[in-house]
Amino acid sequence: MGIQTFPLEPSVSYKPVLDKRFLARRETVMKRSFLCAYLLLLVLLLLSIPSIWAGDFSEISTPDLKNKIDAKESFFLLNASSDIEFNVGHIPGAVNIPGEEIGKNPEITNKLPQDKETPIVVY
Fold first, then answer.
1. Is the Cβ–Cβ distance between 90 and 104 less than 8 Å?
2. What are the distances in angstroms from CA 95 to CA 6, 32, 64, 114, 116?
3. Which helix (H) or strand (E) holds 79?
4. How far apart are CA 106 and CA 101, in angstroms?
5. How far is it, in rounded angstroms, from Cα 102 to Cα 2?
């Protein structure tokens, strides 16, 4: 006895039938995947921004600043607090330019050192 074959009927479709629930679920999963990818990209971008902003800026501790002042190192000491706060107390030798005024008034920028190599310490 040989192998028996049956002819396929042309009216029979062998494509899987996708019901509405499956399609809705697949669409939801895809939307969530894109949302997660978007949020991940946004978080990575936000984490990289401080390093972009930092540029040539660095922090200095209070003891290190005191050592620089005691050693009479050359730097520009900028107090960015308001005039009232500056009058209440400030580090001797500091120049007061209120933070909200920096960049607005050209006369204030004349107070900044002209030598671009002079370090500026802002507090």
1. no
2. 97, 53, 19, 14, 17
3. strand 76-79
4. 10
5. 95
| Alpha carbons 109 and 102: distance in angstroms, whole number | 7
Phi, psi dihedral angles at 116 (to 5 degrees): -70, -15
Whether the model clears a pTM of 0.70, i.e. scores above it, the answer is: no
Domain ranges of the chain: 17-54, 62-122
CA-nearest of 113, 107, 68 to 91 is: 68
Give the pLDDT of the chain (123 residues) as one tens digit per residue: 566 666 666 555 555 556 777 778 888 888 888 888 888 888 877 776 665 555 667 888 989 999 999 999 999 999 988 889 988 999 999 999 888 787 777 777 778 888 888 888 888
| Order of all β-strands in the sheet with 95-96 | 95-96, 76-79, 120-122
How far apart CA 75 and CA 119 sit, in angstroms, is: 5
